[in-house]
Amino acid sequence: MIVEVALEISSDRILMTFEDDGMAFDPCLRSDATVLRTLADAPDGGFGLTLVRSVVSSMRYERSADQNRLLVTLRAAL
């Protein structure tokens, strides 16, 4: 699998684009992980998308010609 990552930086935002030729996977359709009372109760994995959503201003998925594209926008720090 080939993964390409591009960054576009402007004064007010950072746009990250991730492209790959892997299986279709739309992270925007996945629900956030359930917050548990203690870390000991948590299963391994499953919190990555929840963490990403907590810091980005937008996330969009596209699938075209057997390619995945995920566009993630962050507000630039002023």
Q: Rg from C-alpha positions? A: 15 Å
How widely separated are the two ends? 37 Å
Oligomer classification: single chain
What is the strand tally? Answer: 4
Q: Can you list the strand order of the major beta sheet?
A: 1-2-4-3
The 3D shape can be described as flat
Helix percent band: 10-25%
Largest sheet: 4 strands, antiparallel
Unreliable segments (pLDDT under 50, ≥5 consecutive)?
Answer: none
Give me the number of helical elements. Answer: 1
Give a quick summary of the entry.
The chain is 10% helix and 40% strand. The protein has one helix at residues 48-55; strands spanning 3-9, 13-20, 58-64, 67-75.
Describe the model:
- This protein is mainly beta.
- The chain has one domain (3-75).
- Helices cover 10% and strands 40% of the residues.
- It contains one helix and four strands, in the order E-E-H-E-E.
- The chain has one helix at residues 48-55, and strands at residues 3-9, 13-20, 58-64, 67-75.
- Strands 1-2-4-3 form a four-stranded antiparallel β-sheet, with no helix packed on it.
- Strand 1 (3-9) and strand 2 form a beta hairpin.
- The longest helix has 8 residues, at 48-55.
- The chain is flat, with a radius of gyration of 15 Å.
- The model has no long low-confidence stretch (mean pLDDT 86).
